[in-house]
Amino acid sequence: MPEKFSGADVIVLGIDPAIRTTGYGVIRVEGTHIGILDCGTIVNGQKLPHSECVRRIYGGIAELVATYHPDAAAVESPFVGRNASTAIILGMARGALLTALSNAGVPAFSYTPSAGKQAATGRGSATKEQVAVMLSFELGISIEQIPLDSTDALALAICHAQRALHPEYGKLGNPL
Amino acid sequence: MPEKFSGADVIVLGIDPAIRTTGYGVIRVEGTHIGILDCGTIVNGQKLPHSECVRRIYGGIAELVATYHPDAAAVESPFVGRNASTAIILGMARGALLTALSNAGVPAFSYTPSAGKQAATGRGSATKEQVAVMLSFELGISIEQIPLDSTDALALAICHAQRALHPEYGKLGNPL
Fold first, then answer.
1. String of DSSP letters for B21-70
2. Residue B5: predicted pLDDT
3. Cβ atoms of A24 and A57 closer than 8 Å
4. Structure pTM?
5. Residue positions of A annotated with a catalytic role
6. ipTM of this complex prediction, to 2 decimal places
7. Which residue of A has its CA nearest to B58?
């Protein structure tokens, strides 16, 4: 968790995308206070065709953008494995959410999962459970309110806000 | 080129997607007549960020759908190479166009390039130039009106229309 946030307000939407479960988290930094505006997952059942999955991811992200008007989005950089078939499907999920962001004029930046965890917990190798515990402690909310699949997304949002407000924490992620 | 089209009207949008150059072609089959309603490319300069590329692909496909109200879309099945990084980027282009189709309720089917070329020219290994020559001859239009990067898309559209109207030519492509 960053030691300080001050001097500017910022709303950041963090997104951890996948075709079946896309985690999201929206945070607002106001003065020295960080609050979670929303967090959750866009879940697509195993039997849903890809056309329906991308429609739901696009629609879900578009709705979050319309509701919270984020200044920026922090998107998890893809893990590039060896399987090109899997990569195409992950790419489809990314394409859908990036279209929703771009259509609404929200700039998107890419961060590694470990950069997010480092920003949120001080440790890049933290588990989802550890991130959730730390977030609930630091933000004063119940851990039940943080779905595990949204912890990476929340951590990415914190990472971006930290760097946007305090460049000494590191440079912004690659623009998408 | 199919020997006959009759008994039903159908409008098909063929798409050959890539992040930098997406080919498209719209055909209408009316009785025994096939006509090209539109064909061209959505070109994204090398310097455009991916967020802008997917926005333009989404917007271009959405505009074609709004203009021609296709009954279905025929999308080129991806060539799955060994490079997962390239596959993610191709997937992003596919995700953007599939979102545009799905948002508009247009069903999409996947076909291999060779199935398209086989349908359009009788030969699955035809070159883009050969497909263009055959299309201009069969459809009675000038070859200058057919951009080479749209020939695969037009061939896919013909392939889908052929199978949709005459199942003896083969089964429909995999629904996306």
1. EEEEEEEEEETTEEEEEEEEEEE--TTS-HHHHHHHHHHHHHHHHHHH--
2. 54
3. no
4. 0.92
5. 16, 76, 149
6. 0.90
7. A99
